[in-house]
Design goal:
This is V-type ATP synthase beta chain. One of its GO terms (molecular function) is proton-transporting ATP synthase activity, rotational mechanism. Keywords: ATP synthesis, Hydrogen ion transport, Ion transport, Transport. It comes from Gallintestinimicrobium propionicum. Produces ATP from ADP in the presence of a proton gradient across the membrane. The V-type beta chain is a regulatory subunit. By secondary structure, this protein is α/β, with parallel strands linked by helices. It has three domains: 3-76, Elongation Factor Tu (Ef-tu), domain 3 (Beta Barrel); 79-355, Rossmann fold; 369-454, no CATH class. It contains twelve helices and 21 strands. The protein has an eight-stranded mixed beta sheet with strand order 9-16-15-17-19-14-20-21, with helices on both faces. A hairpin with a 2-residue loop joins strand 2 (10-12) and strand 3 (15-18). Helix 6 crosses helix 7 (315-323). The chain is elongated and about 80 Å long. The termini are far apart.
């Protein structure tokens, strides 16, 4: 039975305090009605004897101490679930904002989710094709993986996220069901409209569920958005047997919202002012990815975060790196040279890549090509450093070949158009065209049999 209370004890930032509360539970959802008109939602974040501290999602504006009705619902934050969510757009707490009416839910689920039993987890295998060579070729995304993108302010991570949503698939020969859950936190209105229009114009909206928390929406709402999105993803994956790709942008906005709310609660700050439980909160979100044994479905995550001052040792990318299985790093210098997407392949890696590529998955030579491209591009850095000291004219013939390889690698392999959707075969063929620029004896990461098969073949001409 729901209990209703009249009046508030105090209002402080996004929090209100109720006194004389009985039977309240942590994380319970509260309905607040101000002056009999405006209805808001909140959740209980602290209970002390008969006092309850309520976090108000829509903010505490227009709430009076005397004429506010508060009703305890008796359940945590829930979202209505159905496969009709595909093609719909919601705000940060799951309310429809696409003028298509309410969703007729088949069931309701707690947005906090339930932890997956580690014993029932299945090892990630098959790859997800993004159509982007720097990802598919060198940092391959595997179903059930969590692979973050480390970006910076002003870098084109929004365009990259939109391109991944438009192009992502399970491969040309797959007949399995695939969908995308896209959650944006703290984005500007024009960025949100860019995502909406891009998905609508490219015709992918019908297999995308969007959650948009705008920059002018309440900060508290931002803390719920990724949990709501992942609850929908888990439902579609584990109950509707679909393969779901979840894109979360921008996790830095989520962490800063957490810092702001933590400060309002008067908690003791940790590194850079973030709360001490930042790691566990991020882990709670990232670990909601994977494959459950015996179920034909998977949840794969691409969290996107902007590194403050491009600092990869900042607490957000630092802790994210501990929890996830690799990272894709965007580079400001490449962006300045006009390379899109500006992926710096040397600090980027996918720890699960080796188990989802090769014969039976992509192509037998994939791992060898990736290893050799990494190795050769690392030598480009040495040649460039030497050229900056002694001048390019004084370099050896081999070093000059590495310089030429580096330029074409950045232009043709890393670089591609925003509307260019490459198959894995296209990516590998471009890789071989680049490797043929180097003497055969330099390709020491490729097996002789593979070299015999591909090195002397006529490939794509790179001008």
């Amino acid at each position: 039975m729901a209990i209703e209370y009249l009046g508030l004890n105090s209002v402080n930032g996004p929090f209100v305090v109720l006194e004389g509360v009985k039977g309240a539970a942590y994380d319970e959802i509260v309905e607040i009605v101000a002056d009999g008109k405006e209805k808001k939602l909140g959740r209980i974040v602290e209970i002390n004897e008969d006092k309850a501290v309520v976090q108000v999602f829509e903010g505490t504006d227009n709430l009076s101490l005397k004429n506010t009705h508060t009703r305890l619902t008796g359940h945590p934050m829930e979202i209505g679930l159905t496969d009709q969510l595909l093609g719909r757009t919601f705000n940060g707490i799951g309310a429809p904002i696409d003028n298509l009416g309410e969703v007729a839910a088949e069931k309701y689920a707690d947005v906090n989710g339930k932890p997956l039993n580690p014993v029932s987890r299945e090892y990630p295998r098959n790859y997800i094709r993004t159509g982007i060579s720097a990802i598919d070729g060198l940092t391959t995304l595997i179903r059930g993986q969590k692979l973050p993108i480390f970006s910076g302010n002003g870098l084109p991570h929004d365009q990259l996220a939109a391109q991944i949503v438009r192009q992502a698939s399970l491969g040309d020969n797959s007949d399995e069901k695939f969908a995308v859950v896209f959650a944006a936190m703290g984005v500007k209105y024009d960025v949100a409209e860019y995502f909406r229009h891009t998905f609508a114009e490219s015709g992918v909206s019908d297999h995308v569920v969007m959650f948009l928390n705008l920059a002018n929406d309440p900060v508290v709402e931002r803390l719920i958005t990724p949990k709501v999105a992942l609850t929908v993803a888990e439902y579609l994956a584990f109950e509707k047997h679909m393969h779901i790709l979840v894109i979360l942008t921008d996790m830095t906005s989520f962490a800063e919202a957490m810092r702001e709310v933590s400060s309002s609660k008067g908690e003791i700050p940790s590194r850079k002012g973030y709360p001490g439980y930042l790691y566990s909160e991020l882990a709670t979100i990232y670990e909601r990815a994977g494959i459950v044994e015996g179920i034909d479905g998977s949840v794969t995550q691409i969290p996107i975060l902007t590194m403050p001052n491009d600092d990869i040792t900042h607490p957000i990318p630092d802790l994210t790196g501990y929890i996830t299985e690799g990272q894709i790093v965007l580079d400001r210098a490449l962006h300045g040279q006009g390379v899109y997407p500006p992926v710096n392949v040397l600090p980027s890696l996918s720890r699960l890549m080796k188990d989802g590529i090769g014969e039976g998955y992509t192509r037998a030579d994939h791992q060898a090509v990736a290893n050799q491209l990494f190795s050769s591009y690392a030598k480009v850095g040495d040649a460039r450093a030497l050229a900056s000291v002694i001048g390019e004219d004084e370099l050896s013939a081999l070093d000059k070949k590495y310089l030429a390889f580096g330029k074409k690698f950045e232009k043709y392999f890393v670089g591609q158009r925003e509307d260019e959707n490459r198959t894995i075969i296209d990516t590998l063929e471009i890789g071989w065209s680049l490797l043929r620029m180097l003497p055969r004896e330099e390709l020491d990461r490729v097996d002789t049999k593979i070299l015999d098969e591909y090195y002397d073949k006529q490939g794509r001409v790179l001008e």
